[in-house]
Automatic annotation (TrEMBL):
Organism: Chrysocystis fragilis
Gene Ontology terms: cellular component: mitochondrion
Molecular functions (GO terms): metal ion binding; ribonuclease P activity
Main subcellular location of this protein, as a coarse class: mitochondrion
Cellular compartment(s): Mitochondrion
Compositionally biased spans, kind Pro residues: 298-309
UniProt protein name: PRORP domain-containing protein
InterPro entries in the cross-refs: PRORP_C (IPR031595)
Protein keywords: Hydrolase, Metal-binding, Mitochondrion, Transit peptide, Zinc
């Protein structure tokens, strides 16, 4: 059965359309996205998964003390790596700084100062390791990072994208609705994280914490960290009605089958088989042979013979 997703022509047009949208936004965005496309084409690694970094790092972080969580992003990347996938993390360059924005909550008032999060030494080391190994792409400031992981899915080996983002704002500019559905079914991996509250050492740059010239203070705080990662990969088969055909041979009739997916989202399929045997059209009685592709024929009861016609011959009185 055919797999879901876009064909080669549709993938090429999707990629070109992404570059067109970037060009319409600004020359800077076009050059930046085209540079990323060339970087992907020349990269020695065959990425199997591209991760929407902010979408994972902000997962369920809208609580007091929540923020951009490198630790839960690392937990998801490690899970993908354990499955044998080369992983590319895509995120804005501002999240590679020692102090990063905190968009876990919106300011309640217009003049309220924006929140920030100071990354721990361990978090900064994690990001540095990804960059050194070629598994991180920082999106230049002022560019839309969603366009980067979307472009990755239609480049090279066509990696899956790990995100819970629905990207509704972009689709009317990119592909037709039916193509969007097929792309999403083939390329998007949804995820869930099991989070637990754990202690950690909060760093305060105003007090010199997190720098090399001041000792670390050992006051404690807590934050939510990922303990389990649940990945929901797309189906290898398009969940739609398929038609397959087997031509007739000297030993078996032609066979047409309709494959209908179960409505409950499981891996079960209903298969309807239709046999067309042109040999039945001959005057000679057909030769019945067993076909291993089909279940054994069911013997149906024969209808009774029609009643005899009445005898209307003449008789004497």
């Amino acid at each position: 059965l055919p797999s879901p997703g876009l064909n080669a022509t549709e993938r090429r047009k999707f990629r070109e359309r992404l570059l067109d949208v970037a060009a319409a936004a600004s020359p800077k965005q076009f050059v930046a996205l085209a540079t990323f496309a060339a970087w992907l084409d020349a990269h020695p690694k065959r990425f199997g998964a591209v991760v929407d970094g902010p979408n994972v790092a902000y997962y369920n972080q809208n609580y007091d003390g929540g923020g951009f969580s490198v630790s839960q992003l690392k937990a998801l990347v490690d899970e993908l790596s354990a499955l044998g996938l080369d992983v590319l993390v895509v995120m804005p360059a501002k999240y590679c700084d020692p102090v990063v924005p905190n968009h876990s909550k919106r300011p309640k008032q217009h003049d309220e100062p924006r929140l920030t999060t100071t990354l721990s030494d361990q978090d900064r080391a994690t990001i540095a390791d990804w960059a050194a190994s070629g598994n991180l792409y920082p999106v230049p400031r002022g560019c839309h990072d969603d366009m980067y992981w979307m472009l990755a899915t239609v480049s090279g080996a066509g990696p899956v994208a790990v995100t819970n983002d629905q990207v509704r704002d972009h689709w009317y500019k990119l592909v037709a609705p039916r193509q969007r559905v097929r792309w999403e079914r083939a390329n998007i991996v949804r995820f869930d994280l099991t989070l637990e509250r754990r202690p950690f050492r909060r760093l305060d740059p105003a007090r010199g914490e997190g720098t090399d010239d001041r000792p670390q203070d050992h006051h404690r705080a807590t934050r939510m960290e990922a303990t389990e990662v649940h990945l929901h990969f797309p189906s290898l088969l398009a969940r739609q009605v398929h038609r397959t055909s087997v031509p007739a041979t000297d030993a078996a009739p032609a066979l047409t089958a309709w494959h209908v997916p179960d409505v409950d989202g499981s891996d079960r399929w209903l298969v309807l088989r239709v046999i067309r045997d042109d040999r039945l059209a001959s005057t000679a009685p057909p030769t019945v042979t067993h076909d291993d592709r089909l279940p054994s024929p069911i013997s149906l009861p024969q209808p009774p013979p029609p009643p005899a016609a009445p005898n209307h011959s003449s008789s004497t009185c």
